[in-house]
Amino acid sequence: MNSEVKICQNCSNEFRIEPEDFKFYEKISVPPPTWCPECRMIRRMNFRNERNLYKRKCDLCKKDIIAMYPENTIFPVYCQRCWFSDEWDALEYSSLYNENISFFEQMQNITRLVPRIALEGYQNTNSEYANYVWFSKNVYLSPSTIHSENISYSKSIYHSRDVIDAVFVHYSELCYEGVNGQKCHSSSDLLNSQECINSYFLFDCIDCQNCFMSSNLRHKSYMFRNRNVLPEEYKKLMNSIDLGGYSKRGELLKEFRLLRERSLHRFATIRKSVNSSGDVITNSKNAFHCFDIEKGEDVRYWTHGLEIKDSMDITGAGDSAELLYEGINVGYKDSKIFFSVATFDGCLNVQYGDFCRHCQNLFGCLGLRNKQYCILNRQYTKEEYEALVPRIIKHMNDMPYIDKKGRVYKYGEFFPPEL
């Protein structure tokens, strides 16, 4: 199969669909996309609010809560205790499929009714002021944190503790002001550096200890401004540096900026990976146009996550999942999740799922837990479900949703941003 050049129906620019893309679409029985990869990613990111938090009331227990939704949303918002409780059932908001209106209009109708969880999180402690956090403790204003403790003012922190003001820092401890680092300890102001200990203001350094204001180092110790010194001299020089003073720190940051400008810059941070392109890729194989990923295999157009196989067009996903397509915040022990938002934790064969958990065989459902064979939150038998889904897909193609900008949404398109 040859590659094809298409025109994105959103930005009107050309984009190429490669033979590997077509093979994946054929494998999961979906049509090729009509939006380019960048527009597809932006469209997905409309459905993940990492940056805004609001004080409001839980619409069930009426207690004061922190939520990703403001007070005046058109749908109910429940605190985590209420949302996971047995005091309500999302099947109560079910709807019969209506072939007189488009699928996405029907999806929007139940979107206005089904309660949503205030903050997306799972098994956390003392982390009320952070969204998209899992298996963590004491997390404050630090979205996308996983298996971590004592994290503040950061983003995308995995398996770390005692980290402040950092981005894309994994398997680290006692770090401050770091960007794109792994396995670092007791350090600050590290940029694109891994496996560094007791070091400050390093750029593109690997496996370094007791180093200061240096760049492009490999397996070095006691480096001061890119000059090797004896341990006693290094200690004496560091005692003369005021790392805590505000004005002195400003001077050090200016020096660090000049150091970076004079340093060698790698085309990308790709480590222990094979046949991969993008940036910040670790322990991966056959990763095409991917960014901030770890342990990915046969993945394409994936941004931010870990442990995914055989998937495409995913944002913010990971941990033991495969066959994911066009999803955001999906993929925790899941398989075959297509066109979905925040649908994970043991899910299988879900299309157009929105905030569903532990579910199988869903189409166009919102807020379901431990359910199977449901369409628009309505329960069906296995036979009824398998007969109705092909009819809905045909109906989506025969009567597509057309948004205010004239963009056409047939089967295979992610949720329209208007939703």
Task: Give a description of the structure.
By secondary structure, this protein is α/β, with parallel strands linked by helices. It contains seven helices and 30 strands. The chain has helices at 19-28, 37-45, 80-83, 103-111, 231-239, 246-262, 382-398, and strands at 4-7, 14-17, 54-57, 64-67, 77-78, 116-117, 121-122, 133-134, 137-140, 145-146, 149-152, 155-158, 161-170, 173-182, 185-194, 200-203, 209-215, 221-224, 227-228, 270-271, 278-282, 285-288, 290-328, 335-341, 348-354, 360-366, 372-375, 378-379, 401-402, 408-409. The strands form six sheets. Strands 7, 8, 9, 10, 11, 12, 13, 14, 15, 16, 17, 18 and 19 form a 13-stranded mixed sheet that branches. Strands 20, 21, 22, 23, 24, 25, 26, 27 and 28 form a nine-stranded mixed sheet that branches. A two-stranded antiparallel ribbon has the order 1-2. Strand 18 and strand 19 form a beta hairpin.
Offer a concise description of the structure.
It contains seven helices and 30 strands. With 419 residues, the chain is α/β, with parallel strands linked by helices. It is globular, with a radius of gyration of 24 Å.
